[in-house]
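Sample entry (258 residues):
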Amino acid sequence: MQPIASKDNDRLKEIRALRAGKGDKDVCLVEGPRLFTEALDAGVDVQWALYDPEDQKLAPLLDRASSSGVTLCPCKASLLREVSDVDSPRGFIAVASRPTSDLAPMGGTKGLIVVSAGIQDPRNLGAIIRSAAGLGANGVVTLKGGVSAWHPRSVRGSAGMVFRVPVLDGILPEEFFALAESQGLEILATGTAGIPLHKVESRGPLALLLGEEGGGLDSVLRERCSQTIAIPLRRGVESLNVGAAAAVLVHALAPPPI
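Predicted structure, serialized as tokens:
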């Protein structure tokens, strides 16, 4: 097969659209060998991939991709660099089906669901998803108005853990609150002023709402929560980055990982 040599190739157009948030809502970008391997290990359906045929180091990855039924398309390295979203392109970009999930299995009897309620930076959301997966949360929900869990930088920031934890992406706040009520979830707000984390007695099932960077949780959403919890900090320290705060909160509130 001849390498893709035109920037107007349909697959390159799809990659550009996905980077811009305008592509097929049922798929996501998976860039680089590490994320690709994570996706396959998690059982994700990777549909196709573009690769640099001159890069001999990709041979083992291409063997696995081929054996996994991934359609492989060689592409000129210069074109791969042009559509890449990373500082140091690795000559491999894939498109995978987004795993689907819903809220019902996430709660459990003592579970914790982490809810992005307005987070804008995909790198922050990726870090939150990574913490949720590693520290025992049952799932992640993102509300409309914030960045998608499937933004390429969210996927990358999660180190592929977005494929390992159930994700319900881009739902309306009212839809979330209705689902949470039907599942018997206690909904907790986060903020700089609230019940100190070490004094929180709720043990689930819980939903933890994390608000926008800088502005925090919207007051309308906060009013729907049973209580606001805060992480005690040393005097003079106003707040933590939302990704760091999420890691502390999930570690404290989620059941210990098995």
